[in-house]
Amino acid sequence: MNKEELLTAYQDTFGEKGKDVFFSPGRINVIGEHTDYNGGHVFPAAISLGVYGVYGPRTDKKVRLFSGNVDGEIVEFDLDDATVEQGDRFWTNYLKGMLTYLKEKYNQIDHGFNLYIKANLPSGSGLSSSAAIEMLMGIILKDEFNLDVTRPELARMGQRTENEFVGLNSGIMDQFACIMGKKDSAIFLDCNTMEYEYKPLKLGDYEIIIMSTNKEHTLADSAYNDRVAECGAALKKLQTKLDIKALGEIDEDTFDEYSYLINDETELKRARHAVFENQRTIRATQAMEDHDLAKLGRLINASHVSLHYDYEVTGKELDTLAESSWAQPSVLGARMIGGGFGGSAIAIVKKSEAENFKKNVGQIYRDKIGYDASFYDAEIVDGTKRI
Q1: What structural domains and CATH numbers belong to the chain?
Q2: CA distances from 231 to 224, 254, 261, 282 (A)
Q3: Which residue out of 174, 367, 372, 377 is catalytically annotated?
Q4: Binding site residue list for substrate
Q5: Which positions of the chain have pLDDT values less than 50?
Q6: Cβ of 184: how many Cβ atoms within 10 Å?
Q7: In the annotation, is 174 catalytic?
Q8: Annotated binding-site ranges
């Protein structure tokens, strides 16, 4: 989508010229799934698919929002209205939560605005469309109202929007990846300390291909929050003997020695995934730095296995994508990404074999699932910005 098309769409919607155009990327996560809310490490990167926004100031206190992806009307509310929207207006909560929390802290937000948004990121694809929208709103308000707020602070506010406004007990990874992204790099982030470093995504003759199941997942359902609660219950039991604040603080050996404290099959599996996936992420990041891509691939595969058997968040569609990818000779590794239960997976594929890979995996998926998967080449880009 180019700037002119977006400005035209804004003008057609609101009957006036738009002022500024912004872009907020979605994200993939190379490895480190369901570790962020467990105080572990993640290794995400911002991608070229995302959400665009066109902003125009108003002189009154009205906020008017329109999505080019939703068959609906302009959603209008007062600048001071902090009620949670329901039904077909639910998508506006990701914007409204950010606005509400920034207004609490900064009194410069003193007039309304129009906002047209359009995503080329498939909704429900597990590529963090909600975090992209939150960070879009964060950067628009920071820029247009000259707010003295840092990008990591906006990421935290996005997490608060998910947790308190929307009601999903998610971690910090998605928002952090969307707003802190850096071209051709992934972010090695310790979600316990918020320390991070950029690592160049050097994959040589290989590239990352995103595979969408085209089965929507809504994370704000019970299954995601159940996993958070199960890990929390396991942590509490470990804390009776260990001085820890998060599962991400312990390694496999420590977990093994103290696992008898958990004494519940489900909680044991959930905690084991959180601990082992965190250690896998640390090792995988090191493998990439050592240019040991074969090892990186094996760890990515192991991540999917753990998400399938211990965390139980994969499902038939994601398993079909991962397992059929493993069977291709051009693939180093593949796994589901995001919350699970649908959404997307990634594969690290030899560039010269990318088209064959898409054809082969696409055929297996169609035969087994009954409809098509979608494939996207992942370009790694900078975080949320004005364009």
Answers
A1: 3-200 (3.30.230.10), 206-377 (3.30.70.890)
A2: 11, 16, 13, 20
A3: 174
A4: 33-36, 224
A5: 220
A6: 13
A7: yes
A8: 33-36, 67, 124-130, 162, 224
